[in-house]
Specification:
This protein is mostly helical and 207 residues long. The chain has one domain: Rossmann fold (3-Layer(aba) Sandwich). It is 36% helix and 7% strand. It contains seven helices and three strands, in the order H-H-H-E-H-H-E-H-E-H. Strand 2, helix 6 and strand 3 form a beta-alpha-beta unit.
Length: 207
Amino acid sequence: MGYGNLSTSRDCTSDQVKRTTNADVSYGALTARQLNADYQINGYSGLGMVRNYNGGSPDVTYRTFYDRALLNVSGDVWQNPGTWRPQLVVVNLGTNDFSTAVNPGEPWTPDRLAAAYRSAYGDFLQNLRTRYGAATTIVAVGTGQFAGQVQQVVKARDDAGDSRVRYWFLDDSDLDFLGCHWHYSAHDDRVISDRLTSFVAGLPMGR
């Protein structure tokens, strides 16, 4: 989160990406500050729920690393000390799964990819629910071509009786995508944060 958001150009070298990435002014951090909330950001560039950007590194996905405290240690599991009890978890995963065409040799058809994505997303939400309990509100973000997939996942959770999983459509109107490699710019992060803050402010937050 915050990938190249301080860049003045969409064309960036690896070094420029490092120097212009600032998660502290990403929409997640900005939203937390608007709500006067503590926050934790878990992100990994290029990884998706079941398929990574352009089909890269097919042996891992975002879910491979989510439970780890040390990302480069296989089998490592982050142990919640019991004092981290989030009222809200926001999940935005899907851009990397669907934004690039499936390459020859990948095991996906459009229908198979969508079905695998929905299944993995449902499992991921269940893991969050198990980790944080029934009182945590989970917001599943949908945008672009994967928005409908997320809606289906949220509906399945609601049908199963989990009313604290909510869908939020990330409206990309008025965004300039001037960050490195067409990512959100700092301007975009502010716009998204204002929209997300408005949505979250109306959600039940109990502990």
